[in-house]
Amino acid sequence: MRKIAFVFALLALTVACKKNSDKEKTTDSDIDMVPTVQEECYEYRKDGNTIYMHLKKEANAVTGNLDYAYSEKDSNTGTFSGTIKNDILIAVYTFTSEGMESKREIAFQVKDKTLIEGYGEVEEKNGTVTFKSPDKLVFNSGMPLAKVDCKK
Fold this sequence. Notes:
Layout: H1 2-24, H2 28-32, E1 38-46, E2 49-58, E3 61-69, E4 76-85, E5 88-97, E6 100-111, E7 114-119, E8 122-125, E9 128-131, E10 138-139, E11 145-148
Parallel strand pairs: 6-9
Antiparallel strand pairs: 1-2, 1-11, 2-3, 3-4, 4-5, 5-6, 6-7, 7-10, 7-11, 8-9
């Protein structure tokens, strides 16, 4: 009788341990639910002009740093936050130029491994320069930003 009770106890312990180890395993669906942040960098460099963007994407949300350094002009350095929808990045860029902080909307078309800046009619709303008609932006920049390795 003791042998039978011992076998049942051992069997119950084995089943309990198996159930706990199953709970600790992660499944592919658990991994898919964990948000991932992608980091990408883009740059334009020619004739003394440099534009550098460090972009972080999580789903459709984007944040990052953007620096403009045009030859013989003041540079702009700042951060942005916005979204990407239908391969169009639209964000509010908060930057410093000549010691003054400003805000303006920026737009870039994501095309292959480049970003093309968008332009359009703007207006000021609550201290931020915004596009009047984001659906009428023109993406025809002579300064395309190419994907590059991020600076460390």
